């Protein structure tokens, strides 16, 4: 070994010492443990993809706008993506065939067949309908599109001729954010009351807990329905959106508050809290410096596991016609449009939003489980 | 033995009775008499050991002095010049509020038993040791420098500052706890079983550290423990507690060789002696410790005492000075000849 590698070794061990001086913080430990849960990791990645494509960059990823109606293609089935054409030739660029309407001889209903004479290659980064990203930046760039005159309905169309994939993405924007906004509301309210309840005990605790029990004793869906029906019908879509969010979080905060209270009750007796009192720490000091950071992991886990409940709640309400109003769309609204037997038989692709709901709920559950298991990194399991 | 100095802490007939409630309307059906009439003093610069079995009230007593629990009766006095020299600097701790209380809290610190739960796992060592200083308004840079100083005083290097408690062993965590206790330059430290959770060899290290610090910084310790050997090693005077009352107080050596209370004798007979030729004559006490809700009449120890006479079940003995500062609460203290530990040979 030459002198150089000796110096390198020293450098490496010095660097290692420097790193050793900084201990692994709580969050670094959590991340280390979290990485071992494959399901949670995958769920996290899927959710990141969902949120990127459907919430932040919706206009870019969706081939069409929300209300683009193609009256010539009502109730069209999903167009198959092909690489090999009818003559057996392989194309590097995937393509779809055009659609041609025909009347079925027996049922006399409209049926779509592939027109192999019209080949529409799928192009990426096309210029399509213009939009304003985040309401500020104008653009017309779309990820997927095709030549003029062609259509790329990867999930088919609905009975007004609107592309379902695009509508699922725009609907996802609402469905995915309602969960987050609702849970944030529950969090703020619930964690404050939970900490106060657990820390002070006594009469305050009693009142808060009885209120929570009162609220949670109502069956969720009927209560949401009643409250949603009470929203004034002339409210704009945005107002309805926030109204629904508040309604969903009314029951949500109670459960969270109860869990936080339990955690605070356990933490209250720890010796470091006692030590803090000995030093003369005020109540506020103890709550913010000691109790809250130690509850934070619990709060995050509870919040993550509460989000699917909210998403399902909104989906149910909208499915029943009591939630989000058109022109705003959510997955529940989309499912409502597929709410009859004729749809199930003749246009079953309109039920695709169900899978998105299922996947989202599953992912949040896996993520929440993973977080919960890694939230206590001090146990050697 | 009278001393020329005034005691730092004086307890007069301190009682802590916790009410026991039953039913929805919280009817009080009795009291747990955790501390039942305790009177003693702590002199500046000494280490007073407080021994007793679990549940005798010694931890509660420590918390009363720390002002974490309010006594149901009795007074706790503390002498200091920080709040002026009114009344000879003698302050009734229970009357303190607000700013005054905060000032006094700087002077009385605590070391706790469990090194695992006495440090907040989410805070770095720098934050933990600096917390008392932060609460009392020291700016961040000063806190950091002082933290380095404190850690070096307890024998730990400054590389610990950015680490977390879970990266240290029990003994090291206890040292961090000691550093935290020293942060505001206290005069009195209440040590609640500080070495009970440590291995024996580490215990010795920590005890030696505490003795060194006492000499260097002029500290006064109230050392609460159930371990007789440890208390013997570190204390100047020892107080023995039973069922919420002090039964004997004396100089450490004298207590161990010539106990005057039957309970102390029984405790000492059970203590292991490191002489393989020593024949152990254990005094087995009959019965169990009575419930603190229902202490016996007269002397609390009489149902289990082998020397009990009629007077013991009717009259409560007072803690009195029978020989040169040796205090006992026993009616028969003068007549009994009790066995202590053999004098250990110095190696």
Characteristics:
heterodimer; A: alpha+beta; two-stranded antiparallel ribbon; B: 347 residues; eight-stranded mixed sheet; globular
Describe the structure.
The complex is a heterodimer of chains A (381) and B (347). Chain A has 13 helices and five strands. Chain A has 381 residues and is of the alpha+beta class. Chain A has a three-stranded antiparallel β-sheet with strand order 1-2-3, with no helix packed on it. The mean pLDDT of chain A is 82. Chain A has helices at residues 3-21, 26-34, 38-56, 58-61, 164-200, 202-216, 220-229, 237-268, 271-278, 283-319, 331-337, 341-346, 353-374; strands at 82-84, 90-103, 110-121, 123-133, 137-145. Chain A is globular and about 85 Å long. In chain B, strands 6-7-8-3-9-10-12-11 form an eight-stranded mixed β-sheet, sandwiched between helices. A four-stranded antiparallel β-sheet of chain B has the order 2-1-4-5. Chain B is α/β, with parallel strands linked by helices and 347 residues long. In chain B, strand 1 (9-22) and strand 2 form a beta hairpin. Chain B has ten helices and twelve strands. Chain B is globular. In chain B, 29% of the residues lie in helices and 23% in strands. The chains are: A alpha+beta (381), B alpha/beta (347).
Write the SSE topology.
The complex is a heterodimer of chains A (381) and B (347).
Chain A (H helix, E strand, L loop, with lengths): L2 H19 L4 H9 L3 H19 L1 H4 L20 E3 L5 E14 L6 E12 L1 E11 L3 E9 L18 H37 L1 H15 L3 H10 L7 H32 L2 H8 L4 H37 L11 H7 L3 H6 L6 H22 L7
Antiparallel strand pairs in A: 1-2, 2-3, 4-5
Helix pairs in contact in A: 2-13, 3-5, 3-13, 5-6, 5-8, 5-10, 5-11, 6-8, 7-8, 8-10, 10-11, 10-13, 11-13
Chain B lengths: L8 E14 L4 E16 L4 E5 L6 H8 L7 E7 L10 E3 L5 H10 E4 L13 H11 L4 H14 L16 H12 L6 E5 L7 H18 L2 E6 L2 H7 L2 E6 L2 E7 H6 L4 H9 L39 H5 L5 E4 L2 E3 L19
Parallel strand pairs in B: 3-8, 3-9, 6-7, 7-8
Antiparallel strand pairs in B: 1-2, 1-4, 4-5, 9-10, 10-12, 11-12
């Amino acid at each position: 070994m030459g002198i150089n590698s000796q110096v390198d070794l020293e450098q490496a061990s010095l660097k290692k010492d420097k790193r050793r001086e900084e201990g692994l913080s709580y969050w670094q430990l959590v991340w280390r443990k979290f990485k071992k849960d494959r399901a949670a990791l995958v769920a996290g990645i899927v959710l990141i993809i969902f949120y990127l494509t459907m919430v932040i960059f919706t206009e870019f990823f969706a081939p069409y706008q929300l209300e683009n109606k193609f009256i010539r293609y009502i109730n069209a089935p999903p167009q198959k993506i092909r690489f090999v054409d009818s003559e057996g030739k392989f194309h590097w660029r995937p393509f779809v065939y055009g659609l041609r309407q025909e009347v079925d001889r027996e049922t006399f209903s409209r049926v779509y067949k592939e027109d192999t004479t019209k080949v529409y290659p799928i192009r990426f980064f096309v210029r399509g309908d213009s939009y304003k990203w985040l309401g500020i930046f104008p653009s017309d760039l779309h990820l997927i599109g095709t030549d003029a005159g062609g259509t790329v309905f990867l999930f088919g169309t609905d009975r007004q001729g609107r592309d379902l994939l695009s509508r699922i993405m725009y609907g996802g924007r609402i469905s995915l954010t309602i969960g987050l906004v609702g849970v944030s509301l529950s969090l703020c309210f619930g964690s404050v009351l939970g900490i106060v309840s657990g820390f002070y005990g006594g009469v305050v605790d009693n009142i808060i807990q009885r209120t929570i029990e009162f609220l949670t004793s109502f069956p969720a869906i009927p209560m949401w329905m009643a409250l949603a029906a009470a929203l004034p019908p002339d409210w704009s879509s945005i107002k309805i959106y926030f109204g629904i969010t508040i309604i969903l979080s009314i029951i949500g905060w109670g459960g969270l508050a109860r869990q936080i209270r339990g955690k605070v009750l356990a933490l209250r007796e720890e010796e470091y809290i006692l030590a803090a009192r000995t030093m003369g720490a005020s109540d506020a000091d103890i709550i913010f410096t000691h109790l809250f950071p130690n509850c934070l992991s619990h709060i995050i886990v509870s919040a993550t596991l509460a989000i699917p409940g909210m998403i399902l709640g909104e989906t149910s309400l909208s499915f029943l016609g009591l939630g989000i109003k058109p022109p705003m769309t959510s997955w529940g609204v989309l499912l409502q449009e597929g709410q009859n037997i004729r749809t199930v038989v003749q246009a079953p692709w309109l039920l695709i939003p169900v899978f998105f709901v299922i996947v989202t709920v599953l992912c949040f559950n896996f993520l929440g489980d993973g977080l919960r298991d890694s939230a206590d990194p001090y146990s050697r399991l | 033995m009278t001393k020329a100095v005034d005691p730092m802490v004086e307890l007069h007939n301190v009682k802590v009775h916790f009410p026991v409630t039953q039913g929805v309307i919280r009817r009080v059906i009795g009291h747990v008499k955790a501390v039942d009439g305790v009177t003693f003093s702590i002199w500046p610069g000494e280490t007073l050991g407080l021994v007793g079995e679990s549940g005798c009230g010694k931890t509660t007593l420590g918390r009363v002095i720390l002002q974490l629990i309010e006594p149901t009766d009795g007074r706790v006095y503390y002498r200091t010049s920080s709040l002026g020299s009114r009344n000879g600097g003698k302050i009734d701790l229970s009357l303190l509020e607000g700013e005054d209380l905060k000032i006094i809290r700087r002077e009385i610190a605590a070391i706790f038993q469990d090194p695992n739960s006495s440090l907040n796992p989410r805070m770095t060592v720098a934050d933990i040791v600096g917390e008392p200083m932060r609460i009392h308004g020291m700016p961040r840079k000063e806190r950091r420098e002082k933290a380095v100083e404190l850690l070096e005083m307890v024998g730990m290097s400054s590389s610990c500052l950015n680490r977390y408690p879970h990266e240290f062993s029990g003994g090291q965590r206890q040292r961090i706890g000691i550093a935290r206790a020293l942060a505001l330059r206290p005069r009195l430290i209440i040590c609640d079983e500080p070495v009970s959770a440590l291995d024996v060899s580490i215990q010795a290290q920590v005890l030696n550290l505490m003795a060194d610090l006492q000499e260097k910084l002029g500290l006064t310790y109230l050392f609460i423990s159930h371990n007789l050997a440890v208390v013997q090693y570190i204390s100047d005077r020892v107080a023995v507690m039973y069922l919420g009352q002090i039964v004997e107080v004396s100089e450490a050596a004298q207590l161990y060789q010539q106990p005057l209370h039957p309970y102390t004798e029984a405790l000492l007979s059970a203590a292991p002696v490191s002489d393989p030729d020593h024949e152990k004559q254990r005094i087995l006490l009959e019965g169990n410790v009575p419930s603190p809700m229902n202490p016996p009449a007269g002397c609390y120890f009489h149902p289990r005492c082998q020397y009990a006479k009629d007077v013991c079940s009717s009259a409560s003995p007072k803690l009195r000075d029978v020989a040169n500062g040796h205090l006992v609460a026993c009616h028969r203290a003068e007549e009994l000849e009790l066995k202590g530990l053999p004098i250990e040979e110095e190696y």
